């Protein structure tokens, strides 16, 4: 299979996976009550929280492999897996202490969230390795099989309820890890290996992008825990439709970024700037076409689908519409982010997301102060934060344009 077809199939497989996630989300909406949906949202939030503990090792390893530098792949791989083991031990100690002091209110959700989060770091790392080394065809197959296995757990939803829902999140990363280890045995770490020099070297490629991602995750954490604290778990459940839609919307842009990132980095590193420029333009046009089509389908079809399949969630559709402008904007700036990454102008990314967290906290504090906190205002604030980040990216790009041109001409 040619490289172009592999990429097309990769996006197609991810679309198929998105349809699985879409079906799973709406199965949850149909079978779980609002409190249970709130628990699932908290579970997903915990998984994301654990993923933030990777500290840039995954970002750095991905960039190292994407640049195809002369590296000791085994050493990098063992360092990253050793670090993941350290994270799991720390998480285990935290769980044990929390259990004995009685701070865990829903132990099953917390345990599932932490364990699944650690497994997700492993699966994300192995996925990064496969993408960076262009093993797209193998990744397509493994992604498809692991998601089918995870999806099958929903067959037990009527028997074990929310535990079947939680299992669907747990099974996918562990299935992916096992399948990749079976296919590529050299990725199985043979020893614990961790030195400060190797860690610093990996983080030199990934810490700033990671730190930017931390603020993005912080925004999610701040928003969801604020809704939970100010409005209650049931209201978090009502916001689940908008959260699920955002995750599904992001899948294609994320897939495209995974495909465009390694090649763009190589073009820029090799000073093939003409090819780099055309590549970025193509990337933007594809994202723009996707955004237009998706927005139109959402505006004209979503209400009919919700009325037909899930009428009790119709009133929650408004939160999807309120978050849609920001959702489209944040994904359309991905090509600018790729330019910043390739040219090593990383500070605009960091400052955009860091200041957006402050923007969000001020917005939530204001809502609490004037007692205007409701889901509609949280949805509007969510969209406003994403639009703010997008404007920051565009302005930074325009301000740095001369510097970027100088870099390219040099």
UniProtKB/TrEMBL annotation:
<feature type="transmembrane region" description="Helical">
    <location>
        <begin position="282"/>
        <end position="307"/>
    </location>
</feature>
<feature type="transmembrane region" description="Helical">
    <location>
        <begin position="240"/>
        <end position="261"/>
    </location>
</feature>
<feature type="transmembrane region" description="Helical">
    <location>
        <begin position="80"/>
        <end position="101"/>
    </location>
</feature>
<protein>
    <recommendedName>
        <fullName>Oligosaccharide flippase family protein</fullName>
    </recommendedName>
</protein>
<feature type="transmembrane region" description="Helical">
    <location>
        <begin position="350"/>
        <end position="372"/>
    </location>
</feature>
<feature type="transmembrane region" description="Helical">
    <location>
        <begin position="378"/>
        <end position="401"/>
    </location>
</feature>
<feature type="transmembrane region" description="Helical">
    <location>
        <begin position="162"/>
        <end position="182"/>
    </location>
</feature>
<feature type="transmembrane region" description="Helical">
    <location>
        <begin position="37"/>
        <end position="59"/>
    </location>
</feature>
<keyword id="KW-0812">Transmembrane</keyword>
<feature type="transmembrane region" description="Helical">
    <location>
        <begin position="107"/>
        <end position="126"/>
    </location>
</feature>
<keyword id="KW-1003">Cell membrane</keyword>
<feature type="transmembrane region" description="Helical">
    <location>
        <begin position="9"/>
        <end position="31"/>
    </location>
</feature>
<dbReference type="InterPro" id="IPR050833">
    <property type="entry name" value="Poly_Biosynth_Transport"/>
</dbReference>
<keyword id="KW-0472">Membrane</keyword>
<feature type="transmembrane region" description="Helical">
    <location>
        <begin position="138"/>
        <end position="156"/>
    </location>
</feature>
<feature type="transmembrane region" description="Helical">
    <location>
        <begin position="319"/>
        <end position="338"/>
    </location>
</feature>
<feature type="transmembrane region" description="Helical">
    <location>
        <begin position="202"/>
        <end position="220"/>
    </location>
</feature>
<keyword id="KW-1133">Transmembrane helix</keyword>
